[in-house]
Amino acid sequence: MPGTTPLTRCPVVPVVVIDDAAQALPLGRALLAGGIDVVEITLRTSAGLDAIRALRALPDLQVCAGSVLVPDQVDQVVDAGAEFVVSPGLSRGVLERSRALGVPALPGVATASDLMVAVELGLTEVKFFPAGLLGGPAAIRALAAPFTGVSFMPSGGVNQDNMAEYLALPAVPAVSGSWMVEPALLAAGRWDDVTERSAAAIERAAKA
């Protein structure tokens, strides 16, 4: 199956829901200024693909496509320039298409059964989603016990107040969240705030 995803590159991965692709470049620059060099641009809006294309202009920023649900979307995001794909759940079709295109994929898991399928498919890194509703750090700690070779990226309900608790777990190299890239910040062009929140998140991650 697809190779490992770059979870060890940056301990905090912003999850971006973008309404205007013109926001992509200033957003990317603001994240880099705050020390974050990985970003997940979701396909939840029609601007997602164009935003991924725009971010090709920032070679220091590693761009992932999020909310990839079906194999055809893998082709679309790779054509747009995404370097890896993230899904909310585990789809064999998405994983197989990612492998065919040579792009790492990070599927979402929620249960031990999901993890057994992931391990069977040769995966060693997964997204744990929605982390907050599934039991948070305690759930990951319990699941990591039998799945000793798996790393988790919690997403959903992760914020600046609880991220350190997740990152304190040996099985969690990175978390993902949206507090530093809230749509209101993007809409208002508050790029300094994005940078400030990003830098604060990196600082908290370092302490964790």
Automatic annotation (TrEMBL):
<dbReference type="GO" id="GO:0008700">
    <property type="term" value="F:(R,S)-4-hydroxy-2-oxoglutarate aldolase activity"/>
</dbReference>
<keyword id="KW-0704">Schiff base</keyword>
<comment type="similarity">
    <text>Belongs to the KHG/KDPG aldolase family.</text>
</comment>
<comment type="subunit">
    <text>Homotrimer.</text>
</comment>
<dbReference type="GO" id="GO:0008675">
    <property type="term" value="F:2-dehydro-3-deoxy-phosphogluconate aldolase activity"/>
</dbReference>
<dbReference type="InterPro" id="IPR031337">
    <property type="entry name" value="KDPG/KHG_AS_1"/>
</dbReference>
<protein>
    <recommendedName>
        <fullName>2-dehydro-3-deoxy-phosphogluconate aldolase</fullName>
        <ecNumber>4.1.2.14</ecNumber>
    </recommendedName>
</protein>
<dbReference type="InterPro" id="IPR000887">
    <property type="entry name" value="Aldlse_KDPG_KHG"/>
</dbReference>
<keyword id="KW-0456">Lyase</keyword>
<dbReference type="InterPro" id="IPR013785">
    <property type="entry name" value="Aldolase_TIM"/>
</dbReference>
<comment type="pathway">
    <text>Carbohydrate acid metabolism; 2-dehydro-3-deoxy-D-gluconate degradation; D-glyceraldehyde 3-phosphate and pyruvate from 2-dehydro-3-deoxy-D-gluconate: step 2/2.</text>
</comment>
<dbReference type="InterPro" id="IPR031338">
    <property type="entry name" value="KDPG/KHG_AS_2"/>
</dbReference>
<keyword id="KW-0119">Carbohydrate metabolism</keyword>
<dbReference type="Pfam" id="PF01081">
    <property type="entry name" value="Aldolase"/>
</dbReference>
